Amino acid sequence: MLKTFIALTDKTTGLIGNLVAPLSFIMMLLTCVVVVARYSFNLGLTPLVETVIYLHGIVFMLGIPYALKEQSHVRVDIIYSRLDMRARALIDLLGTLIFLLPLSLFLIWSSLDYVNLSWNMQEGSAEPGGLPGVYLLKTLIPLMAALLLLQGLSEFSRALLVILKPTIIPERI
User: Fold this and answer.
1) 45 and 37 in contact (C-beta within 8 Å)?
2) At what angle do helices 134-164 and 2-20 cross, to 10 degrees?
3) pLDDT of 97-110, one tens digit each?
4) pLDDT at position 16
5) Left if phi > 0, otherwise alpha if psi is -120 to 50, otherwise beta: which for 62?
6) Is residue 96 classed exposed, middle or buried when 0-12, 13-18 and 19+ CB atoms within 10 A define those classes?
C-alpha cells in the first residue's frame, strides 16, 4: 500500500512539475517584451508585468513539491552523502517528521484566513490597469503547502520502507 501511495504521489507531483516547467520559458519571453517595450518605446505594460509576476508565483509555488520529489532542495550534503542507505533514510524520515510535515501543516493553517479574505473581496491588482484575480494567486499558498505535505508523506513513506524492509529499495535513496 505504501508503494502505491508513493508511486501515485510522485506521479502527481511529477505531472504538476512538468506542466509548470514551460511557464518559465513563457515568463522569460514576456520579460523580454516588457524590457524592450520599456526601454525602446517608453511603454509601461502593467498587465504583462503582472502576468510575469503571476507566472513567477505559479512556477515557484507549484515547483516546490516537485523540487522535493526530485531531491533538488537544499541539503547539507557533507555527511549525508557518505552515509549508507538506511542512515540516509533515517535522516530523511526524521527531517520530514520534525520539520517538513509541521511546516506544511502550519502553512495550510495560517494561510486559510488570508486566502479566504482575498476570495471574499475578489481581490485584484492595486495597480491601474493591473490584472484581476490576486485571490487566485494567493490560493497557491495553501495549495503548495498541501502538495508539499503529500510529497513529504511520500518521502516519509519511502524512508520508512528502506528502514523497515531494506530489501525493498524505493527510487532515490
Assistant:
1) yes
2) 140
3) 999 999 999 999 99
4) 97
5) alpha
6) buried
Which grid cell is 34?
516588457
How many helices and strands (H and E) does the chain possess? 7, 0
Grid cell in block for residue 73: 532542495
Using an 8 Å Cβ cutoff, are 141 and 103 in contact?
Answer: no
Candidates 172, 153, 167; CA nearest to 2 is 153
pLDDT of res. 1:
82
Tell me how far apart the alpha carbons of residues 107 and 90 are, in angstroms, rounded to a whole number: 25
Give, in order, the Cα–Cα distances in Å from 135 to each of 6, 107, 114, 119, 129: 31, 17, 9, 5, 17
Kindly report whether the global pTM for this prediction surpasses the value 0.85. yes
Per-residue burial over 120-141, b = 16 or more CB atoms within 10 Å of its CB, e = otherwise: eeebebeeeeebebbbbbbbbb
C-alpha to C-alpha distance for 18 and 22, rounded to whole angstroms: 8
